[in-house]
Amino acid sequence: MTAATERGGPREAADDEETMVTQARDPAVGDAYLVRLSQAEPESFGAVFDAYGAEIHRYVAQRLGVDQAEDVVAETFLIAFRKRDGYDPARAGVRAWLYGIATKLVGRHRRSEMRALRALGRCAPERDTDGHDERVATQVSAQSLRPDLARAVGSLNRGDRDVLLLLALGGLSHQEIADALGIPYGTVGSRLNRARRKVRAVLGETDPMDGGSDHE
Question: Cα 53–83–58 angle (5° rounding)?
């Protein structure tokens, strides 16, 4: 009996090959496939952590500080693992899904976030030159490390702050932010515009996002 027959015949073997080709062409599809695969093979979920653990940690650490980040990131992936059976790729990519979970957990630690924002205002974090982290670093201008901007961001309501920091720190597109937070696409733009107006009022009409991409 051939391996293809054991799995269900030539058609299933062909479907498996097509899935692997699609995964190779589109990493987002591959991520969703890994989550689906982990429903039957839980150990495969480790690949999701390998793919996104570092950037989720960086995002959370910049919002809450390194001390809080480890626990929040661990809880993020634990929640994702427990809810993997209900993950719907039509509603959000895996990356946006994970950022959404992490952002909800960050919301439980407002005092820690305010302390971290003040710390960001006092000293710049070391910049990593690797891939995505480098792009994130370039999107957060030098102004984002000033105490006055930290205070301005801290004064935003939670919804506006989440949108602004998912863009600035997470490097998410507007669509990814909408998917992560479960809000309409247009709401992302309106919240971002409101956040920018409030921040400009503190910074003397200087837009901290100028020079970066809107990730449309």
Answer: 20
